[in-house]
């Protein structure tokens, strides 16, 4: 299967992408991973992307598209892939269509993880991170520490990252609504969008997604 995963920040795309790629036995292609891999390996695309990032500028679509094209052309993606974070806007979606058309393949589905905006804010703004170990993350509602403000693992101070503040989250949502959400209508016109609720336990959402994808595939 060839799938694009979309949804607002805080929808759990990263978690579901890993689970779905394992269940469907297709590679999870994340934009973040592509950037990190190309930069660490110092590829020409990585050097180009880093030059924009170091200057505080957005990486142009053509660089992101070229990275995605290179990754989708690798042997493990021959029979399918799950794209996470790409395409990020309609221009990238059009470029992806062109790339796939050149390979005589098509997308099977665009899985839209639907989460109410207030829930997104609650999920992200409730995160608390350990100052000693950044991988130790708690949540004031869903996974609170035993002692408020103190990491259960190492005793470090828990704090709210600037990226997790409510104001920043709402700005990220504005960017999503403006830039990324239009691709849902773009793909709806092609009959590719499968929408599921991303509320509830992680395992339940995964099974919900797999069921929806199977029903969509059977209906075609």
UniProtKB/TrEMBL annotation:
For this chain, one GO molecular function annotation is: AMP kinase activity
Q: Indicate where this protein resides in the cell.
A: Cytoplasm
Residues of the region (NMP) are 30-59
Q: What is its main location?
A: cytoplasm
Residues in domain Adenylate kinase active site lid?
A: 127-163
List residues binding ATP.
10-15, 127, 137-138, 200
**Assigned EC number:** 2.7.4.3
Q: Does the keyword Kinase apply?
A: yes
Keywords for this protein: ATP-binding, Cytoplasm, Kinase, Nucleotide biosynthesis, Nucleotide-binding, Transferase
Give the residues the record marks as binding AMP.
31, 36, 57-59, 85-88, 92, 161, 172
State any GO BP term from the record: AMP salvage
Pathway field: Purine metabolism; AMP biosynthesis via salvage pathway; AMP from ADP: step 1/1
Per the entry, what this protein does is: Catalyzes the reversible transfer of the terminal phosphate group between ATP and AMP. Plays an important role in cellular energy homeostasis and in adenine nucleotide metabolism.
Q: Which family does it belong to?
A: Belongs to the adenylate kinase family.
Query: PANTHER family this protein is in?
Result: NUCLEOTIDE KINASE
Assembly:
Monomer.
Q: What does the entry's domain section say?
A: Consists of three domains, a large central CORE domain and two small peripheral domains, NMPbind and LID, which undergo movements during catalysis. The LID domain closes over the site of phosphoryl transfer upon ATP binding. Assembling and dissambling the active center during each catalytic cycle provides an effective means to prevent ATP hydrolysis.
Query: What protein does this entry describe?
Result: Adenylate kinase
């Amino acid at each position: 299967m060839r799938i694009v995963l979309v949804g607002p920040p805080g929808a759990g795309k990263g978690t579901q992408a890993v689970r779905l790629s394992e269940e469907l036995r297709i590679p999870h292609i994340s934009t973040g991973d592509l950037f990190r891999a190309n930069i660490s390996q110092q590829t020409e695309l990585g050097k180009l992307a880093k030059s924009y990032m170091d200057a505080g500028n957005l990486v142009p679509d053509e660089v992101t598209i070229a990275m995605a094209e290179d990754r989708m052309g690798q042997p493990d993606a021959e029979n399918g892939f799950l794209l996470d974070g790409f395409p990020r806007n309609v221009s990238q979606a059009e470029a992806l269509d062109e790339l796939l058309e050149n390979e005589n393949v098509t997308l099977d589905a665009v899985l839209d993880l639907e989460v109410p905006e207030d829930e997104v804010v609650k999920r992200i703004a409730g995160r608390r991170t350990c100052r000693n170990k950044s991988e130790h993350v708690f949540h004031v509602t869903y996974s609170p520490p035993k002692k408020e403000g103190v990491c259960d693992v190492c005793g470090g101070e828990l704090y709210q990252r600037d990226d997790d503040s409510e104001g920043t989250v709402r700005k990220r949502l504005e960017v999503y609504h403006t830039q990324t959400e239009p691709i849902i209508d773009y793909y709806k016109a092609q009959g590719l969008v499968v929408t599921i609720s991303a509320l509830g336990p992680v395992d339940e959402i995964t099974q919900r997604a797999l069921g929806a994808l199977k029903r969509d595939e059977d209906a075609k």
